[in-house]
């Protein structure tokens, strides 16, 4: 009994280090709002607030057949999307792994001609009519036959680019193991288009797409109601958000003589916040010893400080650092005692030398979901996972509870930090002040959740938010924790929180890219 009391106390103490109080949330929201405004005015700020040249979100009535490609870290995806115009779509897709040698090729041509070849294969397999037109083009030496249909394509390119037009952006640097020097500083859309043209494919690279903007667009197309989605957020390996801003507030674009062309008629522009780097200078972010250690041992100390407290790539590591510290402290009994947890046979907890717990990044964030979701007696799931995935066997129920409490505190803090970003956007865009009066209730379409507890929220009062990523999708009650924190922000409160509708945007990169290609086609 004494052992379990000491352990429980220590676990509570560590969990409490991850508390992120109402007061702290509110201070961070103020800082987020300040950085949002600053980023709209000048370059080189903590929130980059990148203008995307996309000036409208869809409302679900858009129609047509579009293509999208996605060059992520490891795979190249090609898809075609038929937008039915009634908030639904059908999607055909193929995926190939990018050969390692192309990631570090001598010339960008090697990589981009490979990508164009995949587009050709896709047309051949799934779009006979377009492929036939390819052959026609080849026969006529590239001249386009009459009445030919050109596929508009959205290009999702998940590397840092300096965008200067809806289908124009210069690669700033490679990340994720890519390294092809001659591509740096070049327009990646032009590089792809050149290879497409060489194969005479009837495809036009119409839009350069950031995945967060894709999420926002996809959600806006599929969400119920006509108000349009305000914000798209990603909570996966990393975290980032894009939202609809008033064009007049994006002064670093509107006052820039060298800015590319864009459509002024909507008075809006989608801005990519790059909020992973919110508050890099730690004015308001929490900073436990575990956060400090994680950052020091990361490849980019001092950078992406918000992301390091919020996203899937890092939460497992925070838990690992906390657990290792407890295990290494002889005065704390975690994983140290003899216990009688398994089948009443006394056994001793064993941590194998091979346990991933001893390795940097050894705990995956999905383990936090296991911890938060285990409601079985004695936390059986959690203990099984420790045994199977982490080579820690015969863990007692008390030990499991200690792990659970710390993991839950890390997950909860991440969700409350996510709420800071969401609250900042909701407040700064002024969406809360546009409210109608009346008592009609929200109409909900099949398969879509109405706002929680929404008895009286009118559809036009809904503040719609699209999210994507394994963390928000699978971490138990992530949304509930976000909502709790939103209610603690006085500018939002219970009333504002009820107006917020959060929905998963599935297939964001494909559908979103198609929708941006559509918008781009209208402008051109
Ligand atoms: P990406 O962001 O790379 O497109 P995901 O949205 O799937 O891909 O996010 C992957 C991240 O989510 C990884 O960091 C992983 O640790 C984490 N993750 C995977 N499964 C879960 C889960 N069940 N609960 C919480 N996090 C998870």
Automatic annotation (TrEMBL):
The UniProt record lists the Hexokinase N-terminal domain at 11-221
The root-end lineage is: Eukaryota, Fungi, Dikarya, Ascomycota, Pezizomycotina
What is an example of a GO molecular function annotated in this UniProt entry?
fructokinase activity
Q: Does the keyword Chaperone apply?
A: no
Region (Disordered) spans which residues?
Answer: 433-453
Q: In which pathway does it act?
A: Carbohydrate degradation; glycolysis; D-glyceraldehyde 3-phosphate and glycerone phosphate from D-glucose: step 1/4
Protein name per UniProt: Phosphotransferase
> In which family does this protein belong, per the annotation?
Belongs to the hexokinase family.
Q: Which UniProt keywords apply?
A: ATP-binding, Glycolysis, Kinase, Membrane, Nucleotide-binding, Transferase, Transmembrane, Transmembrane helix
Q: Which GO terms describe its biological process?
A: glucose metabolic process; glycolytic process; intracellular glucose homeostasis
Compositional bias per record (Low complexity), positions renumbered to this chain: 433-444
Its domain of life reads Eukaryota
* E.C. number(s) listed in UniProt: 2.7.1.-
Q: Where is the Hexokinase C-terminal domain?
A: 231-519
